[in-house]
């Protein structure tokens, strides 16, 4: 049972994310990249801190435009590290820049990030973690698990009694494919 479903509703930051984003499928490459980046920023920190800093982070990273972020250089890293509205961790920031280049490559090799996820589904969490570690930087088990639950590739974002569960289910998240087989 997801404790998030018990604590998020009505919260000014968690509520809107829980009710309209968490677990919903159908996100495009830019939204997927943003969520991956937010999960990387969250590693070792609270999700509430990430949500508080999300507007500033989105602005500082040019809306998580993959092509712009992939072109960032050292001056951009320093600019980001100097921004008090961000989680200022060099390893996380440089990993995100690297991962933007990876997403660019996925466009050429697989048709994009969303297509890559779809082509590799279904996998167990362990298989996903191995694939993400081979493909991206700063993608340990917790980052991968939360990213895949937030995008509908793994079950568990909402408990079955949560009102949002039915809304997510109505959009046929990828994890439901196993139920139909």
Q: What labels would you give this structure?
A:
globular, 12 helices, 181 residues, Endonuclease III, domain 1, mainly alpha, metal-binding
* Helix and strand sequence: HHHHHHHHHHHH
Q: Superfamily at the CATH H level? A: Hypothetical protein, domain 2
What fraction of residues sit in β-strands? under 5%
Main structural class: mainly alpha
Proportion of residues in helical segments:
55-70%
CATH architecture: Orthogonal Bundle
Helix tally equals 12
Number of domains: 1
Apparent shape: globular
Average pLDDT for all residues: 96
Organism: Magnetovibrio blakemorei
Protein name: DNA-3-methyladenine glycosylase
InterPro entries: Adenine_glyco, DNA-3mA_glycosylase, DNA_glycosylase
Binding site for Zn(2+): 5, 18
Report what the structure shows.
The chain has 181 residues and is an all-alpha fold. The protein has one domain: Hypothetical protein, domain 2 (Endonuclease III, domain 1), CATH 1.10.340. 63% of the residues lie in helices and 0% in strands. It has helices at residues 3-7, 14-20, 29-42, 47-60, 66-70, 74-81, 90-110, 113-120, 125-135, 141-150, 163-169, 177-180. Helix 3 (29-42) crosses helix 4 and helix 3 (29-42) packs antiparallel against helix 10. The model has no long low-confidence stretch (mean pLDDT 96).
Short summary:
The protein is mainly alpha-helical and 181 residues long.
């Amino acid at each position: 049972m997801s404790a998030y479903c018990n604590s998020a509703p009505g919260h000014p930051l968690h509520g809107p994310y829980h009710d309209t984003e968490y677990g919903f499928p159908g996100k495009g490459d830019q939204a997927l990249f943003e969520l991956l980046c937010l999960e990387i920023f969250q590693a070792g920190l609270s999700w509430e801190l990430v949500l508080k800093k999300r507007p500033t982070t989105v602005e500082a990273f040019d809306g998580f435009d993959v092509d712009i972020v992939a072109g960032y250089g050292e001056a951009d890293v320093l600019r980001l590290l100097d921004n008090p509205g961000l989680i200022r961790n060099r390893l996380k920031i440089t990993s995100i820049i690297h991962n933007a280049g990876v997403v660019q490559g996925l466009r050429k090799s697989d048709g994009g990030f969303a297509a890559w996820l779809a082509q590799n589904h279904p996998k167990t969490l362990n298989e996903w973690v191995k694939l993400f570690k081979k493909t991206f930087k700063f993608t340990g088990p917790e980052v991968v698990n939360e990213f895949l639950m937030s995008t509908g590739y793994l079950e568990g974002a909402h408990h079955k009694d949560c009102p949002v569960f039915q809304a997510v289910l109505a959009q046929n998240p990828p994890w439901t494919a196993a139920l139909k087989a």
